[in-house]
Amino acid sequence: MMKASSGSAAEATSTGKAIKEKKQPAATTEKPDANNADSMFGVGDGALTMAAELIAYDVDKHAQEITLTPEGRLPYSALTATLETIGNESKRLLIVRYLTNFFRVVLHKCPHALLDVLYLCVNKVAPDYAGLELGIGDATLITALASTTGKKESSIKSQYDEVGDLGLVALKAKSSQKSLGSFFGGAASAKKPPLTCHDIFSAFVSIAKEEGGNSKSRRIDSIRKMLVRAQNDEAGWIVRGLQGKLRIGLAENSVLAALGQACCMHEIDMRCETSKITGEKPEKLDTAKVLMPHLVAANEAIRTVYSECPNYGKIVDTMLAPVLAYRAWRDAGASEPPTWQEVPGGMADVRRLCSFEPGVPVHPMLSKPTKGVQEILTRFNAETEFQCEYKYDGERTQIHVFLQKRGSHKRKSDASAAAPAVAAAAPASKKSAAAGFFAPRASPSKAAAAAAAAATTATAETGAAASETETEACASAAAEPDTSATYERVVKIYSRNSEDMTTRYPDVTVLVDQFLPPAPSAPLQGTPDSYADASEVDDAVCESIVIDAESVAFDRETKTILPFQNLMNRKKKDVKLEDVKVNVCVFAFDILYYNGVPLLKKPLRERREILAKVCKEIPNMFQLSSVMVSREFDDINNFLNESVGASTEGLIIKTLDDTYEPSRRSLNWLKLKKDYIEDGGGEGGLGDSVDLVPIAAWHGKGKRTGVYGAYLLACYNPETESYESCCKIGTGFSEEVLESHTKALQETEIQWSGTGAPRSYLLVGDMLKPDIWLEPTQVWEVKAADLSLSPTHKAAIGVADEHRGVALRFPRFLRIREDKKPDEATTNAQISEMYWGQESVQKKDVVVDDEDDMML
DNA sequence: TTTGGCTGCCC
DNA sequence: ATTCTGC
DNA sequence: GCAGAATGGGCAGCCAAA
């Protein structure tokens, strides 16, 4: 697995293979599993095999093949070897199994490296809500590679175009330099100690934290240092890691599956090991059939935990607490009786200790597209009740409100790392603490305290960088009422991708006090674990709440919804209430938490009822989303039309009995937009379909290497007989179509090495720098959701707007219009009309209207 | 001081 | 965002 | 039907070059 290839060419090919290749149509022995989603969770056919293979895997043997550094660090090469193996595999079950077994080895050999490894696998540097990002893109990497190898940036770029993978470019550059015995990876580096996972992750974190003057060059220096120390194929993985995409068919969901299974297996292994000491007889889990339910449960647990507590540091600390306690006990010579089993944590406790709390964003429910009203009706049988709801075109906003001790703001790194230990020492039932009676605290034994310390140390060593910027959930303050303290209600706002947007919405933050019941002066006593129904919900006082909503740019004068673009014009950093120029109306559509009670497992029907009960609508500022319940085709169709008339995108369809548990199915809602509808008939407003001409192209990357990955499209201006750029397009192509387009259009390439467009009849903004230019020959039918005034594109410039052209939003390829010549493409005038014809765009100035008429 | 490239993050 | 693809 | 990986327009913020 870790065979070091000596030849540089072999190294290059090695990573090259990690790009998924098209599967040969050759006979496969394994039949495709129709129900593969389930087998991912360990329920299908392949799952038994998976379990059996996990049992058969000799963790200890593989652990011995890895040599830790003298400091006890895990070599980076151990990870890259696994990534390499995964990259050569396309079966998801196998990918997950490889990673699972690697995690098991890490847990066995070097548990404190798990967090580093996890972060490197998911290509993150901190939890999403911590607001720490690498700040490295392709351009920076190209500069870094050029400076490391002494090559020109243009040469790196053209190699990138050719091989479609910057990681591969790094490897090639390295090997060519190696033969010259210079810069990177020369003889000198052979003496250096190997890179460790900790080295790489720490470097990533420090790159992310770099800011201010010369920060770019400092980042590049860091990258160069890593690349110089890299051996074999490591440079490729470093580069891919910095790109933020490993591109080996392994992303967050698979990593979570592997984490769950690995922890499950490790606990089983550990129980076997310790049973010899304690004399206990562990449950036999040595057959696939017996093991499988445990794997399924572990999978489910980790998925749920991560969706409610998206913080790997906290999860790992919690999972490892008993393990580390055991090791501490074992390493201490086992003179005292074992108490590590009392340490809370591991699979048994992780759900409880890492559960949903205000202050940490939950993964939001998402929706998937449907083709029309009929599809919705056929999808739901007659018993399934559902609601239709406007789909507002704004920004997803998850609003958290919770009580916090005054002045306790954010906890610092030490508290963050220690959080699991603190949580562990707290009573299991929140209720007993909140009730204010004598809280039976499990007074932590010596070993438990030691374990807590060990867990903290592990994080401090390996994960401090990540933890430091993490904001802890502060709602736990409510569990320990402090009579001397005063409390304030804190508001946090998170985006669809769990980014902290609080500072962007001072207006929404202030709004909270207007639509919510007043805050209690101290934490509520005796809050229930759950509500039997909405009537039990206290709407007199609101201590805490989490609301799911869409914030939409709103004109309070005309009381109309403004286009998405207006919302994006708002300032984003350090926004003061007075700075707000573009007003917002918050359309709330769900409630996930109220006064200490999680509502995720309540059906939508009840959540909606509670939401309506506790939130007071403030017209044009805070409203509940428009909802309609009916299963009549005409009703739904009318509601869809009405929604479009109200400047929204369409409808979201939600079943009334479903819960809010994104770990189970994050795409449980359906969306219905006009432009999804496959009409067949005329274009008549059912989404915008236009016929445009490809006039330039870009080389594809990754799985599109070797074909053009994106094209520049233009509309036709009959007056000037020129083509005006309207959008780029990069989706809607099957692989076959990508091939044929490349083949056909390569013939029409215009040789050109100058700047700007090669022909006067190609009107394209300076910002766009296509790889190649094309003579206008084809017409493509393209679908879009919307049109917008563009800073980059030129379509209908001087017609739709004096200075700006029109561009398409969400463009996708439909088909070639064989029947049309380029000069029969959609015209600039038509594009202008379509732009101004949109509901959300009001033409206020009648004079402009007249001018348009005169021009025609 | 202004401009423009790059990046991340909304959709 | 949308779309395609392998499993 | 999931998960992953291709790709879109366009905004503010940041930093470096002009």
Automatic annotation (TrEMBL):
GO cellular component terms listed in the entry, alphabetical order: mitochondrion; nucleus
First-level EC class: ligase
E.C. code: 6.5.1.1
Entry superkingdom: Eukaryota
Any GO MF annotation of the entry: DNA binding
Catalyzed chemical reaction(s): ATP + (deoxyribonucleotide)n-3'-hydroxyl + 5'-phospho-(deoxyribonucleotide)m = (deoxyribonucleotide)n+m + AMP + diphosphate
Domain ATP-dependent DNA ligase family profile, first and last residues per copy: 577-717
Keywords: ATP-binding, Cell cycle, Cell division, DNA damage, DNA recombination, DNA repair, DNA replication, Ligase, Nucleotide-binding
Gene3D superfamilies, per database record: 3.30.1490.70, DNA ligase, ATP-dependent, N-terminal domain, DNA ligase/mRNA capping enzyme, Nucleic acid-binding proteins
Chain intervals with Low complexity compositional bias: 1-17
Region (Disordered): 1-37
Membership in a protein family: Belongs to the ATP-dependent DNA ligase family.
NCBIfam families for the chain: dnl1
Protein name: DNA ligase 1
Phylogenetic classification of the source organism: Eukaryota, Viridiplantae, Chlorophyta, Pseudoscourfieldiophyceae, Pseudoscourfieldiales
